[in-house]
Amino acid sequence: MTEAREPAGPHARRLPGTPCWVSLMVHGLDTTEEFYGELFGWDFRPGPQQLGPYVRALLDGREVAGVGRLPTDRRLPVAWTPYLASDDVDRTADTVRLCGGTVAVGPLDAAEAGRMAIAADPSGAVFGIWQGSAHSGTALTGEPGTPVWNELLTFETESVAKFYKSVFHYKEEPAATAGDDRLTLLLDGRPVAGLHGVGQGLPPDRGPHWRTYFEVADLDAALRRVAELGGRVLAPAHDGPHGRVATVADPEGAEFSVVQDPR
Question: What would be one Pfam family of this protein (predicted)?
Answer without folding.
Answer: Glyoxalase_6
